[in-house]
Amino acid sequence: MKIGVISDTHIANKAEHIPRIILDVFKQMDMVMHAGDMVDLKVVDELRSACPKVVAVAGNMDHDAVKKKYPVKQIIEVSGHKIGLMHGHGAPLNLVGLLKDSFKDDKPDVVVFGHSHKSMNEFIEGVLFFNPGSATDFTAEYNSYGIIEINGGVNARVIKI
User: Which of 109, 117, 125, 141 has the fewest Cβ atoms within 10 angstroms?
Assistant: First the structure.
């Protein structure tokens, strides 16, 4: 199972569209996850043009239409692994602590999140915390997206664009 991961696209605030290079890669994925702050619902349509199965959550900067359609937190079972998906909020320095608290009763194997516009791919207390960074924010250190592969175990990588 290959999962494309994207967050903090901020369409149309930071960019008009998801970068074509990401959509081309996502055509090879079994699923795509958007970890919030898409801002506009057209982001999901763009993602579905590359991969029909899209799972998303709402972020703090999303328009009301996005917040009405998508929850702030989801738990997804994928190939025997539990993945928690949440955007995050508040100060980026306490983001991992917030996520740990939010998912403590769910016991996920992976927590996918966004909010900080800074990528992260780190196991903490046996849980993979994965943030793909922002694909479109020109003020970020670099733009990026992620791929999670589940084939028995879980392997994840951040790809800079």
Answer: 125
